[in-house]
Amino acid sequence: MKKLFPKGLLAIALCCSAGIRVSAQQKDTVPPVQPPANPPAISPSMANPQQYEIADITVAGTQYLDKALLLSLSGLSVGDKVVYPGGDQFTKAIQSLWSQRLFADVTIYVTKIEDGKIWLEIGLTEMPRMNSFQFKGIKKTEADDIATKAGLRKGTVVTPALKQNVIGVVHKFYADKGFGNATVRTEERKDSGQVNSMGLVFYVNKGNKVRIDNINFVGNYNIPDSKLKKRMKGTKERTRFTLYPDTKQVYVDSLAQPDDFWKTYGFLQPTRALDKLDPYFRFKLFSSAKFNESKYLEDKGKVVSYYNSKGYRDALILKDTTYKSSASNLNIDLAVSEGKKYYFGDITWKGNTRYSDSVLTRILGIKKGDVYNLELLEKRLGKQMSQEGGDITGYYMDYGYLFFQIDPVEIGIRGDTIDYEIRLREGPQATIKEVRIAGNEKTNEHVIRRELRTIPGEKFSRADLIRSNREIANLGFFNPEKIGMNPVPNVADGTVDIDYTVEEKANDQLELSAGWGGYIGLTGTLGVTFNNFSLRNIFRKETWDPLPSGDGQKLSVRVSSNGKAYRSYNFSFTEPWLGGKKRNQFSVSFYSSYQNPYAYSNYYANIYNQNSTTTDGHFKVLGASVSLGKQLKWPDDFFTLIYSVNYQQYKLKNYNYFGIPGFDNGTSNNLNLKFTLARSSVDQQIFPRSGSNFMLSAQYTPPYSVFDPGKDYTKDPISKQFNFIEYQKYRFNAEWYVPLSRPMGSDNKTFVLKVAAKFGYISRYNNRTTLSPFGRFELGGDGLSNFAIYDRDIISQRGYPVYYTSDPSLNPESGQPADYRGFTVFNKYVMELRYPFSLNPSSTIFGLAFVEAANGYRDMQDYNPFRLRRSAGIGMRFYLPMFGLLGFDYGIGFDRIQPGGGLKDAAKFTFMLGFEPE
């Protein structure tokens, strides 16, 4: 056999024509394919090339790759006509195979020539496969992250590109963490147990963190360093503290002080000065100031943008230099050119027909003489679509002008004054043609479609698009961060299609708990809530997973018991669109509870009735409710009016919890009608960032005393007075959510301020009746430890246990009265600062800091809205789809602080499950 030219002539010809005689870069580690033994004597002449037909092609040297596929890649096949020697078909075949980057050597051999036919063999030497890899010198978690980012997998072909990719990933990984001097060394290890395979070891030395000692600005005559540094959010210099012994004061100083400075004040070196500082300052001394190249580039742009926002339109960074200040740290010098300060001059409008010049000028909100700010101008014009609205583009798009365009053009510069002409092209009003929904794998499409405000055939409106996004998010079935809205305009016919995309999230909830108490024994709770239930598919077995779902209904069942002492059953069902055409929310619920404090020992009898020796008693509650809510159109369609009919029956036997003499036996009936006017405009349910909630309710029992006006019911026995409960009750809640900064980036994270105010009042119709202990307000605690079965409105207050006196000077632990009837008036004020740590729908986590004040009052004569119990603290919230909302709060009740006591004695840890406490 010969290579395509005898004595190496073909190899030379291929090298000349194709620039290659394919040889492996890893030739020392991979043995080449050996040519067939005893090749025939073939002596074609380079001067006399001839055409041959390929009779057969074989592939040698492959161990992992499919030979038929390799033949296909070569472009050669049996029956093809080739010219030998000198044909370019062979050159192209070698180039094609080599370009796959899978081989260390590619050679084509001629094994036989006979009767105008030629036999070929493609000799391949595969590059080795990676059978293992490991990183040394770093943590396993870091190694796993790097391997994932680099796409390392066993069995991958080992190429120089693979190694360089891993090295690049390592450098970027650690550079983002502030280790800009990381080094990587690669080592190959042969595997004697497997043919043509090897292991790779990456030795990583991440080195010390590269921190920024000083950021120095030069040329900034009008804006101080401190304001420019404040704009560099991702590039900060190390914080240092300067100690002045004479005054014993510590000053924060962003610039390093030389050692001579410390010696001047009697300290041998800075570290000795730190010994005299408070531990808090020692901790803060080495605050993070890592250097990140990508963030640094962004921050330079932010510095220029800040100059532009202050009127310095021509500002730029002339030069920036980074240089070592120590073995691993950096200094940064930035030379800026500010230019002169500009102001807005005349602003004129051109092309507007829908709105007059005066209206557009008012919307723009920029007057002649204002400091020039291009970013503000473009924001007010609406160059970037924003859900905040209020810009000119938004006003046009709310009326269907989807093809609207607006361009600010500088038409003149007079000294430091810039004149603008705002050119508008309104275009036609777009009509919605098709609305498409994708991504709803579980929820039926009609559940989403009925929430949309973008209806085919109607004019396009950006406000309706944003409102539709809110309504989809508030369903609670989808990841609110992944809801997509994509208008697809068609200029030819003036229409627009709208594509909505959603991502389903788990939202069914399971409550399962068990415990053991010394006197009580085993306790347990089992509860399930299906938030996307489908009643109409209840008899279709194929829809059960584990129950039929997809129609947006809510089904909840909960059972709790500890045997003889306590048991409770709850059932509720909600249909949000009764009839399917309008947002009429229909709900039914049933609940029953039983409590026997004497079930286990006289210990409980002594707690609940000090003067009684009986061990036979109980308190039973049976209740049901039916409600219907209707969405209103006025004042706006955020309002809902809800009607509900409620009934509760209370049965007492030898049970006197309320401290009312004689009220330990009997049956009480509470039938009432409740009207609720609510308005909700929050952007989403779990972590609202904007919007508000308002609720005003009025609740009335039948005025039984009116039917017998001559009777004084207060003279009846106390147990008889409460046979038919009579009252009127009013509640008002208000909540506002305000983002304190505009969300930046894809994570949408921002601080949010929540402010809330609440008020409640319950009273009699006249003085001929006695107000029962049921339906009143109970303040303090967290809502879980309170005895909710007594039919109380539980108004929690963090930092306080349940209290029954309105005197803040009485500590609930020591000054609690024996009267547990509850309050008839209350008010509460809350302020929270929230920040989300994770907005992942499978585990939403946010922290909060709060201050709140509340109090309850026995009657309206005692009411004083400024006599409040005050508290403050911090908390965390975790939303897990399976369990709902979990919360932990640590609060300090300031009015619980006793003389000589500390904050520890006034602190209280509270827990919440499944709901935000009132």
Automatic annotation (TrEMBL):
Keywords: Cell outer membrane, Membrane, Signal, Transmembrane, Transmembrane beta strand. Residues 1-24 form the signal peptide. It comes from the Bacteria. Residues 342-427 form the POTRA domain. It is found in: Membrane. GO terms for cellular component: outer membrane. GO terms for biological process: membrane assembly. Its main location: membrane. This is Outer membrane protein assembly factor. It comes from Chitinophaga varians.
